[in-house]
Amino acid sequence: MTPEEILQGLYDQTLVGNAPGVLELTEAGLQLGMGPETLLFDALIPSLEEVGARFERGDFFVPEMLIAGRAMAGAMERLRPLLAETGAATIGTFLMGTVKGDVHDIGKNLVNIMLEGAGFHVIDLGVQVAPERFVAAIEQHKPDIVGFSAFLTTTMPMFKANINALQKAGLRDSVIVMVGGAPVTQEYADAVGADGYAADASATVKRAKQLLSERRAPIPA
Fold this sequence. Notes:
Order of helices and strands: HHHHEHEHEHEHEH
CATH class of the largest domain: Alpha Beta
Oligomer: single chain
Distance between the termini: 54 Å
Number of helices: 9
Mean pLDDT: 91
Structural class: alpha/beta
Strand order of the largest sheet: 2-1-3-4-5
């Protein structure tokens, strides 16, 4: 296979969520001497962006996003150490966790895959993450963005508890706070003082990039 055929195949197989095919083509590309960043930025990321676009148009639904995300995740497992060796730049660090009292992680995991595919370095704290664990992780990793995920209406108040904990630790101004999950709305995000909200994985990537560029934009003289 030529490099062009491998890139096209990676794009097509990620789009349909063929995890074994994606992994096979990833290996074939590496054996041909193709760089991991080429496979990522010229095939895998564009494919996942197309998945997101189809989801927004209503052509794809959550199951299609999940299987495409899982297919890409398999390739990322193989490419991640190689990308680290090449020093491939990440666009930012995103610390993620499902809030205390909540054990749901399917949505969070999909968001993580989409963020990683978009070039973010993702640190996932898992589920049932207490405010003090978020604080400790922010102090340790110094992320650009922290994401609080909740699937239950009963655990949504933890957003405010987490933000209060960041303020108490003097960390609130140093990190962008994003919230999300099935019952969460923009109005609720505003009410608890979050910087950003997104309704789904694709929107999370767009909003995260937007918030990051706004934070990094030079202040007008």
